[in-house]
Amino acid sequence: MTALIETLIDIVGASHVLQGNDLQAYEEDWRQRQRGKALCVVRPGSTQEVARVVKACAAARVAIVPQGGNTGLVAGSIPDESGTQVLMSLRRMTAVRGLDPVNQTITVEAGCVLQSLQEAAEQAGFLFPLSLGAEGSCTIGGNLATNAGGTQVLRYGNARELCLGLEVVTPQGDLWDGLAGLRKDNTGYDLRDLFVGSEGTLGVITAATLKLYPKPVAQLTAWAALASLEDANRLLGLAQRQLGASLTGFEVMNRQALQLVDKHFPHLRVPMWQENDWCVLLELSDNESEIHARGLLESLLEGALQDEVVADAIVAESLKQAHDLWHIRESITLAQTQEGHNVKHDISIPVSGIPAFVRAADAALRAALPGIRFVNFGHLGDGNLHYNIQAPEPSDASAFVRAHEDQISAIVYDMVSKHQGSISAEHGVGELKRHKLAEHKSPVALQLMRSIKSAIDPLNTMNPGRLLVAPN
Ligand code: FAD
Ligand code: 2HG
Ligand code: ZN
Hints:
This protein is of the alpha+beta class. The protein has 4 domains: 2-89, 2-Layer Sandwich (Uridine Diphospho-n-acetylenolpyruvylglucosamine Reductase, domain 2); 96-214, Uridine Diphospho-n-acetylenolpyruvylglucosamine Reductase, domain 3 (2-Layer Sandwich); 218-333, Alpha-Beta Plaits, CATH 3.30.70.2190; 340-418, Alpha-Beta Plaits (2-Layer Sandwich), CATH 3.30.70.2740. Helices cover 38% and strands 21% of the residues. The chain has 17 helices and 19 strands. The strands form 4 sheets. Strands 12, 13, 14, 15, 16, 17, 18 and 19 form an 8-stranded antiparallel beta sheet that branches. A hairpin with a 4-residue loop joins strand 5 (96-100) and strand 6. Helix 10 packs across helix 13 and helix 14 packs across helix 15. The longest helix has 22 residues, at 397-418. The two termini are 31 Å apart. The model has no long low-confidence stretch (mean pLDDT 97). Residues 34-215 form the FAD-binding PCMH-type domain. One of its GO terms (biological process) is respiratory electron transport chain. One of its GO terms (molecular function) is FAD binding. It comes from Malikia granosa.
């Protein structure tokens, strides 16, 4: 091991090979659910350095765990507890390599923070639409490796749909340059799509070419209160019919989610949560004018109020008010963290089935564990709900999660399967859900996934033990 560390120091320099006890930020997951121990943290500064590090680790049969912003919610970016894995942080690789305004693409290195990428696009008059609560610290490499979703998927798609090309270092340390920003390319298996969503198990993403969009002329945000998820689906249908592709976001939040934001961040002044079971945040992007956009949104909401689909609604009067409303939505995860450990389920169901799913899952869980709190929110337009469970009040949240997580998740995931859903809509599988994946994915799908893994990474050195568990 000492020889490997000396080789790594030769490649990236002594100041970029970190060892010792002060590696908590790299070794602990964002939710503080798990902590591993790395042999060392290596911080390459270029694709060539990544390739040399991977080659050296492969020669020594040492596993690599790639890490971007370490904001993942499934503990996929931290090492195991063995102290033998090299944690590779991509955070030094932040360059914007180029922007092609005619092709409407931008090429960036993997460690570029999502917000910096959005800003680089904006400075050139474009929109890079991927948007999520962790955008100030997650990296585009991590976004692609998890196929991240967020709040604009309804209109622009998830990270996969925004990606036109990748540069990847393979587990053998070879470089695949697939960066050309082609919108059409039918030359066999789609390698790009294989690496997107592979959670560091097939190689290290070092750069990407991504789609840009013209910046909308106007963006408006509305907040509406509703009595039920059925009404939320009705409003979604009306909005899709009346606004078409201008509808760029449609988020739901239940009362308990907003109550937690109100409790932990009272200065955010959450509207309408006390009197209503559900609230919706809607975003409209328009290429004509703000007056045009406001007219569309107001007529949608007036109709919905008249038909009693919504109980109350406001349209943000200024950019600041819109930003404040989005901030409330993006603060739910943090409010849940403040409240204590919780059980997360990032599920997807066909949109039409969401109300029935929530009714059935709520009833089954209430019967099993009276007093638990349902913190539900998410991207209703994508059929993606964060069906999260918080311990009853008052109780020791960590002890509750330790004692009941498996029981709760088994009930929820069985219900998801009954509703033809997925147990991971956007966060990925990582360490936390790999056993659940093995239970809920078909044997044929799992076998195909294992074949791909062993063909590309026969030594199993890329993020081993994540995503897939070995067959029994
Ligand atoms: P990390 O956490 O560092 O890594 C995630 C996975 O990708 C790991 O398996 C890691 O090994 C792998 N990986 C990282 N970089 C590379 C690379 N260069 N090459 C190969 N593999 C790599 N997710 C959503 O989808 N939608 C949301 O709305 C959303 N909101 C969030 C809000 C908050 C407050 C937080 C904390 C998280 C949220 N997330 C969300 C989850 C998380 O932000 C995303 O999964 C994000 O894409 C992870 O990026 P990262 O750079 O932090 O990756
Ligand atoms: C979001 O949509 C994220 O805010 C986080 O995906 C979800 O905390 C969660 O469960
Ligand atoms: Zn989400």
